[in-house]
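Sanity check record (used in CI):
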Amino acid sequence: MLTTRHGVRVLAAADLDDFLALADQDPVVNVFAIHRAQTTSLEPRWLGGEMWGRFDGGVLVAACHVAANLVPIQAGPEDAVAFAERALARRRTASTIVGPQDAVQPFWDAVSGTWGQPRDARWDQRHLVIEGPPQVDSDPGVRLTARTDLDLLYPACVAMYTEEVGVSPEAGGGTELYRTRVVQLISRGWSFAKFDRGELVFKAEVACATRDAAQIQGVWVPPHRRGEGLASAGMAAVVDLVQTRIAPSVSLYVNEWNEPARRAYERVGFRETARFATVMF
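Expected output for GNAT family N-acetyltransferase:
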């Protein structure tokens, strides 16, 4: 049933085609939401939450993924406020709000007085895409990882996550869950790394993917090996592997202040297509 004021309701499997048509208006920016919809058919038990839709004249005009990650989809400021007002009627379940700036900012403005102080807020993240071949030579040492790499790969994943997010993924008893996630990425063929004399010197993963796009996460070089060009050559290799095996468009988003990473991605050939924002609790 629609809420009277805002035309917002929980989407279900019967809405999948309409949802995909909406998200496909920007299939690269919306790759996470499309991936989630296709793998769960919008069933709440598989989503671990809900997908909300906002309707105008019976037409789905915006959506919002509401689970551990709260992600607005094709939402303008008015849509974001409508979703925020629905969110305020229930307990916060999201640990992260992430998406295009022009939706995340008005959503946060509406809920911030109730949801409390975030652990971190990053208001200027550059969403980058590459659709053609890399502009630098690929590192031939970058390859798909295997279960036999786990003893070297897992500590690097923990280190990267802790450096990027500010807390360890193992905090609060999360070790087994996070280790399972790393193994899952290996099994899918979504984990890439380079090893040098028994040391991991570069890694990256695919976070989510569709037939149109794949989003990269977890790009990391150990601090003592930075400045050697490992990131740019490694990312060129990842782009080659992903475009060959998974999807033609490769995307990621990077914090505005992370100038070394931004320079590396620019050298590879990534270009900015949107601005993201992330609020973390």
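The chain has two domains: 8-116, 143-273. If this sentence no longer matches the regenerated tokens, the check is flagged for review.
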